[in-house]
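Internal tracking record. Fields below are filled automatically when a chain is submitted to the structure queue. Please do not edit lines marked as system-generated. If the sequence contains nonstandard residues, flag them in the REMARKS field before resubmitting.
Queue: standard
Priority: normal
Entity type: single polypeptide chain
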Amino acid sequence: MNVEIDLYSGRRNPVFGLPPEAGEALVARIAALPPAPPGAAPLQDLGYRGLRITGGPAADFTEIVVSGGVVVVRDRGGAERLLHDEGRSVERALADLAAARVHPDDMTLLRRDLNS
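SYSTEM-GENERATED OUTPUT FOLLOWS
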């Protein structure tokens, strides 16, 4: 399973891999989230826009976007579910996993946006 930090426009975003056990725990955590409130949407601004999760040998999804308190799960059939990430806890947990895997400058930008 790979995680892309959607951080830059016009330059390559940082990407890191998750070990299978971390990926399984993440998917289980996301599956337990409640539906997002009406009108909820991922971040669309310039700069940090969230984390995109793809891959995994047995993944039931094509992409998961974790962004601004919303988790968007896109399944293989094209359906989309929006879930509520209370306190951005899933997003912060992914940032913690990224800390040892991406450049410190990228982490500074990610943490700044998460804390704003």
